[in-house]
Amino acid sequence: MQVPGGSAMRRWIIGTAGVLAMIAVVAVYWLFYDNRLPTSGSFPIDLAAIRAEAARMPGGGPVRIETETLSHVRVPKIAMVAGSDWSKIDVARMSHRLVFPDRSIVIDTAFDQAASRASNDDSYDPAAWRRLVRAMDEAGAIVITHEHGDHLGGLLASPHLRAILPKALLNPEQFAISPYIKPLRWPPGVRAGYKPFRYHGVRAIAPGVVLIRAPGHTPGSQMIYVRRADGREFLFTGDAASMADNVRLQRIRSRLVTDFFTHENRRAVILQTIALHRLTAEHPQLVLVPGHDGAAIAALQHAGLLVQSFH
């Protein structure tokens, strides 16, 4: 038996389904594929000025750079590199150590096993965490690329935080209690008396080591230039470029990540990525160390540019 108005109802259902399908396609494109580049603006990376600042402090740079990988999680590449593909890639949480003849500097501190478990990581290395805790204890300085839990969390989870905090060079935004630091918590009372490390533009903190202000991924984001004692140059990008392909393809993280998880200044990060792409084209010997690219870090270790594990 035919229901009165059945043909009109079918047309309405078909039309509505078509509209919903179109909305779904647009949503998927916007969330995962959209990577429109700004038509104006730039992020300045003046390598000559950075080199001059690196030479301002007398002495040689680090003799080697060590990397400790604490955890891994596999995610679709398209989440980390917008408009790429849906294959799974290794997102690693890492810490680095610059080893001088008479001191060391730790760059980024990943996070402890409890935070890794809360982030649903696929694996965690407790032995690497113990080496990181010891490295932070022994370091002359600790610097963080930005105030997210998988970079700052290891510092806050250190059982010796009160003793090592004075040598952590946190800029004001990294030290602030802001939405970017959640779900991390500062232990009660430990912040009292700490003075953030303030600078503008670029600032040398040791021979061959220069901080570069780069707000965008977070307000306190910075990159770290390192000129090794043998003259080889490195640039630790933090999450201005989480993956090597962010720079190679000039594609940042997907909008799903940037707009709903990290809440970053997407335009600023794209401009930084464009600047890094140009910089590496002009200076191909400059070694980029991306913030989370497990495969890229393994390749740098295989090439002898980074040393696996803290020694």
From TrEMBL:
Keyword Ribosomal protein: no
Domain Metallo-beta-lactamase: 92-292
InterPro entries from the UniProt entry: MBL_superfamily_lactonases, Metallo-B-lactamas, RibonucZ/Hydroxyglut_hydro
Keyword entries, A-Z: Hydrolase, Membrane, Metal-binding, Transmembrane, Transmembrane helix, Zinc
Similarity comment text for this entry: Belongs to the metallo-beta-lactamase superfamily.
PANTHER family xrefs: 102 KBASES UNSTABLE REGION: FROM 1 TO 119443, QUORUM-QUENCHING LACTONASE YTNP-RELATED-RELATED
Taxonomy, superkingdom: Bacteria
Name the record gives this protein: MBL fold metallo-hydrolase
Lineage: Bacteria, Pseudomonadati, Pseudomonadota, Alphaproteobacteria, Sphingomonadales
Molecular function as annotated in GO: hydrolase activity; metal ion binding
Membrane-crossing segments per the record: 12-32
Native species: Sphingomonas horti
Required co-factors: Zn(2+)
